[in-house]
């Protein structure tokens, strides 16, 4: 496994990260490793939007929807 060094982390950011790690009952290293791993596994927003666009395409038009509503009302 590789090691990562992050320079120039402000004291306030470091303290906030330590607090978050402690609240989760974890070491700072374990907290940051989980954070980096989750981020690496998360697809970019543009990829998620493209997938959503592909998977939610429909051939139903607005007029089809309105016709179905009108038909449903006629059968009441």
Describe the structure in your own words.
The structure is a single chain. With 76 residues, the chain is mainly alpha-helical. It has one domain. 67% of the residues lie in helices and 0% in strands. It has four helices and no strands. The chain has helices at residues 11-23, 28-41, 45-55, 62-74. Helix 1 crosses helix 2. It is elongated and about 65 Å long. The model has no long low-confidence stretch (mean pLDDT 93).
Q: Tell me the structural class.
A: mainly alpha
* Major sheet description: none
> Using DSSP, what is the number of strands?
0
**Approximate helicity band:** 55-70%
Low-confidence stretches: none
Q: Shape from CA axes?
A: elongated
Alpha-carbon distance between the termini?
Answer: 66 Å
Integer count of domains: 1
Specify the oligomeric state: single chain
Helix and strand element order:
HHHH
Beta fraction of the residues?
Answer: under 5%
């Amino acid at each position: 496994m590789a090691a990562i060094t992050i320079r120039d982390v402000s004291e306030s950011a470091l303290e906030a990260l330590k607090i978050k790690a402690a609240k989760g009952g974890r070491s700072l290293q374990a907290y940051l490793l989980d954070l980096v791993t989750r981020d690496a596994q998360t697809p970019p927003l543009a990829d998620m939007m493209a997938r959503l666009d592909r998977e939610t395409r429909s051939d139903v038009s607005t007029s089809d929807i309105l016709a179905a509503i009108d038909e449903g009302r006629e059968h009441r």
